[in-house]
Amino acid sequence: MRCSGPVFALSTVSSASSQALTLEETIKRTQAAHPQFRAYSALQRASKADIDTQSLAPPVILSGEADNFIGNGNYQQATQAEFTLALSSVIELGGQREARRQQALSAYELSDAQSKAQTLSLLSDATRAFITTLASQERLALATESLNLNEQALAVVDKRHQRGAAPVNDRLRAEAAVERASSTLRQARMQLNDDIYRLTNYWLTANESRDEIRLAGDLYDTGPIAAEFSQLLTTIDSALVLEVYASQARLAEAGATLAQAESTGGVDWRLGLTHFADSGDKALSAGVSAPLFSGRRGVSANNAARQRSVASEHQYLSHKREVTQKLHTTWSALKRHSANVEAYRQKIIPLLKQAMNEVGQGYAQGRYRYQDWQIAQEELIEAQHQLITSATGAQISRTLIEELTATAVSNQTTQDAPL
User: Fold this and answer.
1) For residues 77 and 69, what is the distance between their CA atoms, to the nearest angstrom?
2) Beta bridge partners of 284
3) What does the DSSP 8-state code read for residue 166?
4) 235, 241, 252, 405 from 411: Cα distances, Å
5) CATH number of the CATH domain containing 318
6) What global pTM score does this model have?
7) E strand spans, 46-137
8) 320: how many CB neighbours lie within 10 A of its CB?
9) Per-residue pLDDT tens for 199-215?
10) 391: containing domain
């Protein structure tokens, strides 16, 4: 089964290398290589075969029978034998054949809905792994920037110390800051390698080599957001996870219909030709049988099937409430994270950069303490970390909304995601 995946996409960085891995390429590789997609296809083919099987009429049975063909006395030579060749079958009443076919069709629809929901879930997981890895890549770049800032600060402190304008304590603290930044950089590199392994695991096996990979995408492009939750609420009925519950309800209803049809029973018929060995004569025989009071015996089974159908309807409504609540929570998180991204990018980080540069220049001129400069650097780096965290939260919230509704967040219509 092919699936184009979530409609969410990170904007590709225009300056990225042609070898950089994009989200679109990630989805394509996952679709092409992940074994779960082959499992979905096999299950769908099995469900289609079940429909064909359940659409068949009861078989006509050919049977043979020999009576009195061996024994003692007059029966030693099989002269008294009787040989019968017969055809038999069942005439189903109450639309049992169509009810069976409808139940198999409902089972296929359920399997199809489950496959689509699981496919979207798998591709959403791959998308979130891409986002997490892209965030780790940004943290590695930030760790590199932090190390560069601390090395530059150490050079300034060292010059002032050599001139006798800064105490040895400043130099020692600057060296410690460089070591901390180096350790953070190593940790960021290891985390990125771990995230790359997890990401590539969607299309590579454990034994396949993983070349150096760089991701291309704009983590900070959070895109448009629905101003009102009611705009998203209109898409809730297209949620694939709810379609699974709706299909389960239809399957339960089909089961109730089949139970009612089977309660009417059927007519067994038999037509046979008997050959009498002693006389050489032949005779035709016929038989018909039908159950009595079958309707009464089917009441309990029918009631049980009906109650399962009612339970499925209530489960659908219950899960719809859960999805609605989860959608609202995720939508609120998307708004908060996006607002943070905007605030940090447009106001907080530019101000902190300006403050850090001012303190750095002032320290070189002897107007500020080294501690003031160090605090300004740490505040800037921490703000950039917060920006990455908020941007990651916004992107992951967006993919979760699209997984819940199977629609693009930026297009608040009932357009379904291509599956």
Assistant:
1) 8
2) 273
3) S
4) 11, 20, 35, 12
5) 1.20.1600.10
6) 0.77
7) 61-67, 82-92
8) 17
9) 999 998 777 777 778 99
10) 23-35+113-266+307-405
